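Z., the sequence and structure:
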Amino acid sequence: MKALNSFGFPVLRFNFRGAGLSQGEHDQGAGEVEDVRTALDWLDREFHLPMIFAGFSFGAAVGLQAACPDPRVRALIGLGLPVLPADERTYDYNFLQSCNKPKLFVSGSRDQFGPRPKLEALVASLPEPKKLVIIDAADHFFEGRLREMREAIEAWLGDSLAADD
């Protein structure tokens, strides 16, 4: 959020249904994809600006599904993208095979839900442009490594925005 905001992007940050103080019940990803679409619609109405989607963990998994095909979204950021089943959740990223938007994936070298070999294989299979950044010694929540995560996002944004000029 802070990295995107430092580049002047308006940022909408929210909890999915049933998380934190949000109302509603978890919908195993289906309703949450629709929640992201609703959020993108709201951002478009409020700001009328090109958008960059960034999501963390489950939010990245479902948000990428909504943001990738949306023509208003110019680039995608997945932080702590889960690639292993967790609880009842399984993750399928086949939809990314047709996503030609710039994609940044940032994960920790000790991410228990995104082991490096599986994440590297997924990213290698995706179309360009794409980038994978592994933060050394970071866990799934980037505990103690948020500065490095933010720097990776800022560097990628700076490069991506410069390429658009």
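Residues 2-164 form a domain with the Rossmann fold fold (CATH 3.40.50.1820). The longest helix spans residues 146-164.

Let me know what you think.
H.
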